[in-house]
Amino acid sequence: YIYELILDRKNLMASALGLAKTKESKDVREYIRKNADSIVDEIIEDPHPDGKYKRFLRKEGDKVREIFEPSLKDQIIGNAIRNVIIPLIRPREYFHSYAAMKGKGPLMARNAVARCIRKKWARWFRKYDIVGCFKNFPLNLILNVYDHLFKDRKARDLIIEDIKAYQDFLGVDKGIALGQGTSQEWSNLVLTFACYYAKQVIGIKGLFEYMDDFVIIGSSKRELKKKGDDITPKEKKTLSEEEKEYKSKRKQVQEKLM
């Protein structure tokens, strides 16, 4: 049933016209709008991704990301998958995940962190970055999550083709294309399980996720470790001295986030 919804003509047309709106080039926007019917007909006749990509670099803050943009056909297929799958999985995703979500974004993430650090227990914070997150994403992680939520095998096969097209293009056996419409959605969904584990099993009080970046907030260094034994003897010796500086450090952080 999910497979039929993905390849429904109305969904494919909405995906094509929605893709046109995101293009900076006026010529590309007009090309997609003019040829949307023929591209959609081609996808309905042959829904298999063609696996053609264009590589370029994009600077985001202090990071330079390697982007692999699929062909228009593959972008429309990716958007069609996203249009159907995302409304079904969005309610299950971690609340304090802020990337690629309608009504959220970096400003809302910043404000949420600012509200959290005003709480009395919020004495320490740490920032984490998953290095090479998209390049190293195993396909089986996405499929395990999909199988946990859905039973449609044809849709599953289409998703595998969508992801494998990028891997085959590069000659690798892992990774998702940062440039395909579904890549951030799969990342959000899989990292949701990591966030819930950190909250419910490890016991992190404050946890905020944006793409492959995390901020965790707690009342002590020990709380920001999985186990108290993970703290080295040197850390234990200096911990009390560092906690004496807590008030001034917390104030500095608050001022930066205000």
Radius of gyration: 21 Å
- Total DSSP helices: 10
Structural class by helix and strand composition? alpha+beta
Spell out the helices and strands N to C.
HHHEEHHEHHHEEHH
**For the residues shown, what is the average pLDDT?**
83
Helix content: 55-70%
Distance between the termini: 48 Å
For the largest beta sheet, what order do the strands appear in spatially? 3-5-4
The gross shape turns out to be elongated
Strand content: 5-15%
- How many DSSP-defined strands? 5
Structure description:
The protein is α+β, with helices and mostly antiparallel strands and 258 residues long. Helix content is 55%, strand content 13%. The strands form two sheets. It has a three-stranded antiparallel β-sheet with strand order 3-5-4, sandwiched between helices. The protein has a two-stranded antiparallel ribbon with strand order 1-2. The longest helix has 20 residues, at 26-45. It is elongated. The protein starts with a helix and ends with a helix. The relative contact order is 0.14. The model has no long low-confidence stretch (mean pLDDT 83).
Structural topology:
Blueprint: H1 2-6, H2 9-22, H3 26-45, E1 53-60, E2 63-70, H4 72-89, H5 106-117, E3 124-129, H6 139-149, H7 153-170, H8 183-202, E4 206-210, E5 213-218, H9 233-244, H10 246-257
Antiparallel strand pairs: 1-2, 3-5, 4-5
Helix pairs in contact: 2-3, 2-4, 3-4, 5-10, 6-7
